[in-house]
Description:
The complex is a heterodimer of chains A (409) and B (167).
Chain A lengths: L1 H39 L15 H7 L1 H8 L22 H4 L2 H5 L18 H7 L12 H4 L3 H7 L4 H8 L4 H10 L24 H12 L8 H8 L8 H4 L2 H10 L23 H10 L11 E2 L6 E2 L6 H6 L2 H4 L4 H5 L2 E4 L2 E4 L10 H4 L8 H36 L1
Antiparallel strand pairs in A: 1-2, 3-4
Chain B lengths: L1 H28 L20 H8 L9 H5 L4 H21 L10 H19 L15 H4 L2 H4 L17
Amino acid sequence: MIQLFKKFGWYGLALLIVGVGTALVTALLMNISDRKKESKNPYVRLVEVTEEDTDPAKWGTNWPKEYDSYKLTAQTTRTRFGGHGGSEAMPQEKMDRDPWFKRMFLGYAFSIDYRDRRGHAHMLEDQESTQRLTKPQTGSCLHCHASVMPLYRKLGDGDAARGLEASYKYSYQDLNKMLHESGHGHPVSCVDCHDPKSMHLRVTRPGFIQGIQRLAASDAPVPHLPSVQRWREGKKKNPYDPNNDASQSEMRSFVCGQCHVEYYCSSKQPLTFPWGKGLKAENIEAFWNESKFPDGTPFYDFKHAESGAPLLKAQHPEFELWSQGIHARSGVSCADCHMPYMRDGAAKVSDHWVRSPLLNINRACQTCHHFSEEEIKARVDVIQERNHDLLERAAAALMAQLDAIQKAK
Amino acid sequence: MGVKRRFLFYILIGMAGLLLGLGAFTFHYAEGFAYFSKDPRACMNCHIMKPQFDSWQKSSHHGAAVCVDCHLPHGFIQKYIAKADNGYRHSKGFTFQDFHEPIMITPGNARILQENCIRCHGPLVHNLAPVTVKASRAVACVHCHSSAGHGDVAGLGRAYKDFKKGE
């Protein structure tokens, strides 16, 4: 450098500065150009995808950012009260941690095997390997554990709703075999929530479509679903159709509500969403209490082996629970917190790594709640701890009740 | 030596010209002149503030104020100091992609914002608002009126709630 200066003097130094400056300006120009390109083309359709393409890898060619984050659902995630507490291979048995689960479910397959949850990527293999399959299980279960729509259309001669009606008569093993043989052995994938032509959100699951139509036809208040209210006030020429009537914001919850709900899923009748009287726990209980199986006997989920009582078991009513909360009333959808928008360069992408908002507080919460991460986490912790304590107390009361029944017998 | 030096001089002139041209083009390509205007679209040139722009269009202040009316001081000198300060931070942040998300207003800019609330609404609120913003721990107007400038919460697609898909 000094030698260079000595040899060429000020001109050399100036030349060096101008050269470096030019390089920096060029780098900036390229950077701006990249960002402009990102914002212009949200995606490039390299391969054609259709209703029959259940393999997410093929869609991943066109939408690599979404696919990359979708693949992350295979990761182990854990929060204080939720998530996957076991080894890499197998989540922990809930019953080992809280033995009352086993006694509560006696007479039901969940007393055999009931583990912590894993992410979307594991839904099919976890279902295929559960010990609950040592008891007869119905094909209905695939409604929510596989990319099952092509199989439903095949079973129903093109009509997926009829396919669902037929599927409960198959054993889980038989229907699962048909699924794999038809090449659709994938967990929930792109085509289940996205229209392959337009990429618009859409619901596909016949169980949900029938359930939400039942809800719309009822007079249960749904202030968090304005499109249902609009449909009720309208001419009602056609049944409520979420794919045409719902707003984008509602669809961002409906796609999740296809599975994260309470339903009947066993071998006596087709899969049923119990929304005919509303979405509250008491509405659902009333719906089931008035339901009868096709053979005319009263509806129940299982008979408790110790007490002999016919029982209802709520499955995983996240959609119903959300419907009662302040977030739903404020127009916040499932995806807003569980799949928040993220920015990749100049492009806006929905995070397809579906997970607890607590693992993504800045994107999931801070868009609305302008507090520090610690503050938000502490608040959630207090609420969750209170709920967890209530759960434990309810469990203790239930065990005491079973003891008393045992004694009386 | 003289020939060599003259040769270097010409190269230098050439390269300086190149830098000037490239710089001018980059400035034009990055829509640099837009930042001297008060056109709200300039604020989403770099895409980050698109949700804020969208939600402003749905807000009550849409007809009354554009971005700079609330977010920049109104004195000429102060305005350009604020423009330079924000411009530097924003271009650095967006080029190196190293800023906190979601974006949040800085304390300095929050003061400017509050001053601008008072600038228009002062006659109405002078009995309840602190006269100077510097009065420490004063509650800012937007603490409660958070949707005045940006409708409902930005970035969540909330603004489309009552519209059908595709409308």
